[in-house]
Amino acid sequence: MFPSFRWLSHYSLQWAQLKNHNPFLDSCRFHHFNTKSTTLPPETPHNTPTVAIFWDLDNKPPNSIPPFEAAMKLKRAASSFGVVQHTVAYANRYAFSYVPQAVREQRKDRKLLNQLENKGVIKPVEPYVCKVCGRKFCNNEKMLNHFKQIHEREHQKRVNQIESARGKRRVNLVGKYAMKMQKYRNASREVLTPKTGYGLADELKRAGFWVGTVSNKPQAADVALKEHMVDVMDKKKAECVVLVSDDSDFVGVVKEAKSRCLKTVVVGNLEHGALKRIADAGFSWQEVLMGKAKKEAISVVEKWSDREILERLEWRFDPEKERDAYAAVDAFYNGTECSLNCAEAVNFAPADWIPHGGSEPSCIRCFCSVLVRKKSNVDSMAMDFQKLVSELSLAGFVVGLPLVIGQK
């Protein structure tokens, strides 16, 4: 027999009261504890450097492949050096209205193919499918007319409705039409031809780049890109700078980045250009598009890490430290007072020596004499001197024991 509902409600009420007094009961009810204790290794934090990409579109536009594909491959290659957080591209208005020769030839071939399909000379193997509503057409021009007459008008109505709304109604309309508008944008890239240019700015924005448009004055894009790079370096937003350009005007900015201990990478077609000679690493556009740059970047990062380790281990001459060290050695051997104060004497004395207090002296020579005076037992005195000699040897001093014992 099944229990009554009254009993179930009474049981659930008691369980809720117990759980409020002891929240641990909830985990005991639904989880089985294993008697074997398992210790997981602690996760080590990865100090991944941040990367900033600066693209000079006037000097290095993506003419060979579509802009979106070029931007994504560039970001994948730069991600081998760290986390890509800043992606910036600058160009003048002419660069965004310019249509490459390959795109013009492609549009010309498409126009000729539409004419042959309308005359019935060529029949498509598969029908053209509208990516918004799924309707099929026998030629491309009919699908284009359908797209413009129906879907383009519907999209424009939605845009006007959102722009005319205010407040909460506008927010609700944006959420309501978001999926439909995104579906229209994805389909329009393949069907409609941009009115100006070939959609360079829109494709780069879709890839996550911040696109800046400057005037058509000469060097306007270079000046804006330099200022943006310096601003990122001043605010310490990046530890690695990737510059896409062959323009030698950026030599000064690359040198400035290296002087601030930033890693510099240049992407350009000139193998022996001025930028690649100065930068820490350089790749060509072909290497980026083929994926070769992403593979080579791993070895470049390993070389950088090895170089940093060697620089930390490298001995550097410090005149202040060398003068103090030689003064302590001279005082130790000559039996004269050294010029070190208590704080500096601690660097050359053993760890158990009290550097300051009362009548206690504060130099190496006086420490040795006090140690000899205070120790009456020869064995303990020898052990203390052996400890002193080992400490001084580790500190870099050359100690002569007969001379030390003679100082009484």
Task: Please describe what this structure looks like.
Helix content is 56%, strand content 10%. It is of the alpha/beta class. The strands form 2 sheets. A 6-stranded parallel β-sheet has the order 5-2-1-6-7-8. A two-stranded antiparallel sheet has the order 3-4. The protein folds into 3 domains: 77-90 and 205-313, Rossmann fold (3-Layer(aba) Sandwich), CATH 3.40.50; 99-196, no CATH class; 319-406, no CATH class.
Topology of this protein?
Layout: H1 5-21, H2 24-30, E1 50-56, H3 67-78, E2 83-92, H4 93-97, H5 101-119, E3 128-129, E4 136-137, H6 140-164, H7 167-191, H8 200-206, E5 210-214, H9 220-234, E6 240-244, H10 251-259, E7 263-267, H11 274-278, E8 281-283, H12 285-290, H13 292-313, H14 319-334, H15 342-345, H16 364-374, H17 378-394, H18 401-406
Parallel strand pairs: 1-2, 1-6, 2-5, 6-7, 7-8
Antiparallel strand pairs: 3-4
Helix pairs in contact: 6-7
Keywords: Metal-binding, Zinc, Zinc-finger
InterPro entries: NYN (IPR021139), Znf_C2H2_sf (IPR036236), Znf_C2H2_type (IPR013087)
Domain C2H2-type: 128-156
